[in-house]
Write a structure and sequence with these properties.
heterodimer; A: about 110 residues; alpha+beta; 3-stranded antiparallel β-sheet; elongated; B: about 50% helix
Chain lengths: ~110, ~850
Amino acid sequence: MISKALVAASTKPMILSILLRGENYGYRIIQKVKDLSGGKLEWSDGMLYPVLHRLEKDGCIRSQWKISDERRLRKYYKLTDKGREELEKERKQWLSVHEALSKLWKPQPA
Amino acid sequence: MFDLEKAIKKWCKELRKNEALEDGYVEELESHLRDEVNRQLNGGLGREEAFERAVEEVGGAEKIGAEYYKTNTLRWSGKPPWQTRFGLSGLLASYFKTAFRKIKRQKGYSFINILGLTIGLSSFILIGLWVKDELSFDRFHQKKDRIYRLLNRMPNGSSIASVTYALGPALEEEYFEVEESCRVWQWGGSLVTYLDKSFEEDNIYLADSSFFKIFSFPLIQGTPESALADKYSVVLTEETAHKYFGDENPMGKVLHLTQYEGDFKVTGVIENIPLNSHLRFDMMTRVELLGEDRLARWREWVASSYVLLRPRVSPAKFETQIADIYKKNIGPEQTYVPVLQQLTSVHLHEFGDSGRVRKVYGFSIIAVFILLMACINFMNLATAQSAQRSQEVGIRKVIGAMRWQVVRQFLGEALLTALIALILALIVVESVLPYFNQFTGKSMALLSEVNFTVILILLLITLGTGLIAGSYSSIFLSSFEPAQTFKNRSTVGNKGGSIRKILIIVQFTISVGLIICTLVVAGQLRYIQNRDLGLDREHVVILYNNPLLRPRFDAFKSSVLALPGIREVTAAAQLPTQVGQSIQINWEGNPTQDMLGVDYTVVDYDFFKTFDMKILQGRSFSTKFATDEKNACIINETAAKQMGLENPVGTNIYMVHPAWEESFRPAQVIGVVKDFHARTLHTVIRPFVFRIYKPWHQYAFIKIDGSRIQKTLAQIQSAFEEYAPGYPFSFEFLDEAFNRQYISERQLGKLFNWFSLLSIFISCLGLFGLASFITEQKTKEIGIRKVLGASVPRIISLTAREFIKWVLVANIIAWPIAYSVMRIWLQEFAYRVSIGPLVFGMAAGLTILVALATVSYHSLRAALANPVDSLRYE
């Protein structure tokens, strides 16, 4: 069970990274995020959409509606250049934190 | 049986009730739900269970809404307001909030839209206020329905406002239908003195004692019966009373009026006269002062006269009764007929038939035009805007949203935008009103009296505009097939393009028309300024040759001539550019013995020298000839022509002037002066006769050097005060007086200037918005062209070409209309400019340039954009 705060902080880089691999639509992105964060989130699916829209408003991702052959309507998201920059920033930040914590948690010599 | 579709739809409906969820959010969530349902179904669950599980996964509507809200606002508590408020007001507020948010999202278009409509509404309101004020004149008189001004109708059907002063009393005496009559002379003036205070009053009215019984000018002191009871009584306005008497009680005090050579007792004080009264005076005394026998004459057309009819008398019937009163009293050959003019239409028709009324019509039309343009703009932009959002509409149609929901949404937005514009317009008007009041000389207020009807009309107009714009765009869009909206946006946008084209053309037509009018009016004003009047009016100082100065004028003249910087000094009865007197003359050798009507005035010897007027035949007046003062006259070319005399010098003329004794009436022509403009350029140059008659030389004219004007004036003042002590020294320059004659034309010019600017601005706003939309549509096309090697200028010309065509069409339509309108206006002037092709060329050039600049902004941006971006856009 991952805490709400942590989930909140990590959804942004997670979503951006997923989109780095290419265009994707809401449902699949959220499924991926759920899988990666392992087990249950304290949030429901629907509540992740606002994050997507926030990212879009900030200009990190761009959206477009598409119709599939079975007449299913889906909103696809794509990473923008700004998004790429943001992702790089997040990556650096998380890696720094990870480095710091790793050093702290290294088994101490007895 | 569990109906999956129905359940999903119900779930969506619940979701939609939540206002935080904007367009597309619900659809996205629905899509997510369906995917989840499919997953659950694939996992082997039954439909109902699958649905319920999926709903659980996605989350409840309330929580989702709250989460959205948190990310979308800066509200501190993070709690949506509808969770704290409830009821109908909440519903209405939420409805507006959605619309409001949509407007914020398309800030650019919304701004242009609101701006255009605000300007249109503001102009409409301002002009509306002005028109309302003009129509409101003289309505404060209690008996206004029974008060009429007497006019003379001439055989050609037109009427004039000057009647003989014998008419009023005769009507009152002979006809029971007339309760009261009153003669009013509006041009009294005099030096007025109280103890040591003297002022030159030029706004004294002379009227009959019945004046205050007919007109409702509330008397603060005195009664309508006693106010003008005595010939030597005077009534003052509050302001005038304060000027002479301060806080003392004015009643019974005595003012000395030099012009009428008498002491006048104050018998009444009235409240200050409201601005919307055509009768405006500072003081009033009795009309008998004009001369009793003059007033009794039937052949002299003097000034305005009014009657108060008894209740229930039909004015039309009364008119037929009095129709031949002139024939009876003057003679059977008299062709004038007296007619009645309602009091409330006097202001607009001050000269009888004509007057300000045309201006009022003209401005009303302009107001309607400008509002029309703004509304057209609004509709144009709203439809263009909504075409952009056609995709959104497509989505809704796929989901199955009902058409009326789409309509309702667009309608709501349009109405809200229109209302915002109305509120802004009211604010703008309120702040601009003081300056507008100054310019028009009125005191109008926006939120005064019964402006409820006005506000209601405005509301209706605004809502109407919003309604038409909203419904047009929504109905037109909601009829789309969804597939269309996703495939090719440019085809979608072009529907309705022809209507937009027409609307833009209409706007530019109006603009071009206004520009042409502005140019023509400006041209005519310039012509007036520069036209050779036949006399030199530069650097001429006008002084009032007051009764103290007049007998000593010759001495004053010599003193002033001795001063440095003085060129000439002369005097006359009227300003040479503003002669208003005419008379009938006869002359020896007149073949028909028909009298000729001529303009005339009396002047001093050096008159022609002072104004540099050329004497073509004979000579000017000269002190060398003693008879010049008694029996000499000078005529102008036109007079000579109309008299049929090639060599008029030496001819004897007989001037039928009632105020001159028999011995003074004949005069011999000693010279012919070159034609000059004695009246405004509205009138053709008429025959003119000059004589010398010192008692009437009211004005002194001093031609001074252009340099050191201040010093010269100071010296003239000292001389003046020496010869006319006690009189205040006030002067004016002749060209100032000249310009004042054309004040209404100058105001017209200024107004046209403003309106042209306004209409061009509004048209450009519309064009700007439209160009933005169309250029966006063509982004892909432009991208491709760039890749294929087209240069930036070429791209701009491609996109701009369409618009320029429209502007040209607008020009072609506007030219004949503007030409006819201006020709009618110019016909008021006997001397006028001709409307040349230059005016049309300039109008076309200006509009094309402006349109080009407006459109280029977008074309340039598109042309300079990286084609990679443009092509990736879709």
